[in-house]
Amino acid sequence: MPSYQPFQQLFETFGRPPESHSESVNRSSREALKGWLDSPIGKSGHCMLLKAPRAGHGKTHLLTTLLHEMGGSHEFVPLHAVGGSRIDSSTVLNDILRRLVRGLPAAGGLTVLDLAARRLFSAGLQPLVNSGEVPCQDREAALVALCNRPIETFDFHHPNAVTARWAKDNFELLGPRLALELSQRNGLSLREVSFWVDVMFLFSSAEIDNPERVRTLTAQVFDNPFSEAVANERLIALLGLLTTLLRVVLVADELEGFSLDESAALRFASFICALRQSVERLDVIVSVNQDIWESAFLPRLSAGLTDRLSELAVELEPLDHGGVVAIIESRFPGEGESIAPKIRATHARGVLAEAARTRSSKDNTEPADPARADQIASFAVAPETPETASPAPTGRQPGEADPLPPGTGSGAVEWPAPDLNAPKAFADTEDFVPATPLPPAAASVSLAFDDPSPFRSKTIQNSPIHDRMEQLPGAETGSQSLHDLPSPAPHPPAGEPAFTAAANPAAEKASDRVDELLRQFRERYGKS
User: Could you tell me which of 12, 120, 457, 470 has the fewest CB atoms within 10 Å of its CB?
Assistant: First the structure.
């Protein structure tokens, strides 16, 4: 089998880049979700329900593809169900902050929260500069900088960022004015907006390489005991501020744990619908399998909650032949058309699993190498003779003796020179027909012994001649050699009728056969 197995990863996690992708699979569903998410900032968001007939149809793969295609303009936040069934304000707040504090590539340690804080401060300061409440020598230039270059204007770590240094020195007076302006513009709670303005200022003004930045932020948000109601207000305020800057998409995937808790689906649906009503620009995608939707959601949700949760619905379709071929080709190029006719599954995970088994069985049934087949066939020959010695086993050069067993010497047994003019033995003629088929030729034995007797005994016990002799009357097994076998009695014992060769030709023929076999053995192995 090939060392690379293209069908190993059958399960994916939202957020991780997929190893393989088929553009044609679930294309219509992906384009529908992209169209709904492409609405500009400031427009109302949507609640989208993504359903699949069963697990393995590619929901997570589709969502991950959207994340990597639209991640520059949208902030996708995966929601994690605590205990498999609890998603509430505290858990969503933790998921959002964990997403915001991730470092940006090639940004020198800046995070998404750093950029969001600078843009919020610039947006809140613009009306104050425009009204003259915040004095400025060049008002027009300051407004242009706040509108077009908010990241550089509020760079608290650059020595030439005059506005950022002034805001940092006067934040005790500027902070409340910024919070009031942002809360009035977005219709949010002043208390919670003030909380987030303070938290964001402390985070963004701290040194970027300070390892305590994230820990301090987490302690400010979660260490002080607060109720679920307070967590919900903080969550609404944070989402309200962020959605003025970018599109935020909450993604609820892997909801199989809801089937274990009867009230989990009802609590989740009520929470999502209330959050959507409080933050109109928020987008939510609920990804669920049909069995979970029918068993956990529909029996417990009211008609109103069902309609709000499935405001926009997309259902993945079973794969057709083209989709099956495309999935196999994405993992194993060139094998799609040959493997697809053997696939019975109509969902992506099942196709990959069956393709893996088909590919494995194909590798196991490939024809053997002709050279290897010839090598194997060379071992299936008649009992070896001095003219045709058996091939050397693997790991030894041709002509090299077998390894010596422990305790043996290095003496060599010489083969007798063959007599090429000798008449053919009876066993080599066409008239010789054995009573039973002879066993295969014995394996090669060692030719280096001080004492030839072990070699002779081993050869006899493992040779085809020994097996043939066991079938004859009067033959004995064990370590006894063929020379010790009793010869056929020329006359029957007293009291028993005598049979002549003419009266019993079978016995005479058996006796001649024994003599012939003994003669062949002596010619081959030598007399002791």
Answer: 470
